[in-house]
Write a structure and sequence with these properties.
- It is a single chain.
- The protein is mainly alpha-helical.
- It is built from nine helices and no strands.
- The longest helix is centred in the middle third of the chain and has 39 residues, at about 95-130.
- It starts with a helix and ends with a helix.
- The model has no long low-confidence stretch (mean pLDDT about 90).
Length: about 270
């Protein structure tokens, strides 16, 4: 049975509009990203703004990163011990905790936590500047808003997120040691010797590559959502800022997980 054309027309047209919109949005984000990267190297360098953003994105996130890393490592140590003990391999707990953190959980959870703490603030701040016409004032004064607002945040993210990932990994391994050795009785020498023998430079470099890519995702998406708050059809003003902030966090978190899968497939 052949369905009438007018029955198929509406879902097909909706699918076409969504496809075109998605392609256009990907193009806009890509152009936005490369503009932000290009202006990082334009003179004069915005060193003071970058330092301020490194402090905001990096230093102010240290506590939440340490807290999250410690409990993540402790949970890995606890779950890993009761899994490995079934096979008589509890001595491998140090290797399991370290590799899980360095390869996967460290970069991913660090990026997600930074998205929730700093990324949302970036989107909200730029969004408020957009609806209060401060960005239009920058354009009137012949100041490029992407260079002035976005590039320092992108550079700060490239600096801060890999360092926060390293802190997360170290604290997480110490959390695994606390659970495995102090609470469950695994010999500390065996724990750390397994960490040393199992972790290769390939694992560490792979984790840092992921953290750099996640930094690009977080900074680009959060700044893009805030910068284009005024273009949202769902609402303007305070509602538009709230929607932009929510979209920035959700999209960044999803893209971090998707990108993590792609990078893991390539780096393994």
């Amino acid at each position: 049975m052949i369905l009438p054309f007018n029955i198929l027309q509406k879902p097909l047209s909706t699918l076409g509009r969504l496809t075109i919109f998605s392609i256009q949005e990907i193009g806009r984000v890509t152009v936005f990203f490369f503009q932000g990267i290009l202006f990082i190297f334009s003179l004069p360098l915005q060193i003071s703004k970058t330092i301020h953003q490194v402090y905001f994105i990096g230093m102010k996130s240290v506590f939440v990163i340490c807290l999250t890393g410690a409990f993540t490592g402790m949970v890995l140590g606890l779950q890993g011990y009761y899994t490995l003990v079934k096979f008589g391999s509890e001595g491998l707990l140090g290797a399991a905790v370290a590799l899980s953190l360095i390869r996967e959980l460290g970069p991913v959870l660090t990026a997600i936590m930074v998205t929730g703490r700093a990324g949302s603030a970036m989107a909200a701040e730029i969004g408020i500047m957009r609806i209060s016409e401060q960005i239009d004032a920058l354009i009137t004064m012949d100041i490029n808003p992407i260079r002035f607002l976005v590039s320092p945040r992108m550079l700060a993210a490239f600096i801060s997120i890999p360092l926060l990932t390293a802190i997360f990994d170290v604290v997480g391994i110490l959390g695994g040691y606390l659970t495995g050795s102090v609470l469950l009785g695994i010999n500390p020498g065996i724990f750390f010797s397994r960490v040393e023998s199992s972790v290769l430079m390939k694992d560490i470099s792979g984790g840092f590559i992921k953290s750099f890519v996640f930094a690009a995702v977080v900074a680009t998406i959060c700044c893009f959502q805030g910068y284009n708050t005024h273009k949202r059809a769902e609402g303007f003003g305070a509602k538009g800022v709230s929607l932009a902030t929510t979209s920035a966090v959700v999209i960044s978190s999803v893209l971090i997980l998707v990108t993590d899968y792609i990078l893991t497939s390539i780096l393994l």
